[in-house]
Design brief:
This protein is an all-alpha fold. Helix content is 70%, strand content 0%. It has one domain. It is elongated and about 55 Å long.
């Protein structure tokens, strides 16, 4: 899997995560007389103090979905499109890193990392740096039969 595909996969997983958050907030632990539609209206109302979070999560889910799809499309072979996606990932990640918990900070940071790697080397895979170990003394003296 190359850097473009990895960035796209992380963005699609981020979109799925936001949809999961919405489903949980709308459907779980509702009182008997409250439907999911009433709960949705309350979450989107100005009476609710966390409604800006839900508006931001809608925008983030939509952006993540379309950006993830773009990374898998033919358009992502262009450096201009990769640069635009990198800038949009940074714009999306900065408020997320500022306001959200450490687990979500890691996901948004991974989108920035792989978007940057996709811009620099679109068709290469991310590999951890490691030293190649030479043969030890026993392997040097051993001969093949």
């Amino acid at each position: 899997m190359n850097n473009r595909q990895t960035a796209g996969l992380i963005l699609l997983l981020l979109a799925i995560m936001h949809i999961g958050i919405w489903i949980i907030f709308i459907t779980v632990s509702n009182p008997a007389d409250v439907t999911w539609l009433n709960n949705l209206k309350y979450l989107m109302s100005t009476q609710n103090e966390i409604s800006p979070f839900f508006y931001a999560s809608i925008l983030s889910a939509v952006f993540s979905f379309f950006a993830g799809i773009t990374y898998f499309s033919k358009a992502s072979t262009s450096k201009q499109v990769l640069l635009l996606l990198l800038l949009l990932c940074v714009v999306q990640a900065i408020p997320a890193i500022w306001f959200l918990g450490w687990d979500l900070k890691a996901i948004y940071s991974a989108t920035m990392l792989f978007s940057y790697l996709a811009y620099k080397n679109p068709n290469k895979s991310f590999k951890f740096a490691h030293k190649k170990r030479g043969l030890d003394a026993a392997q040097k003296t051993r001969r093949a039969p």
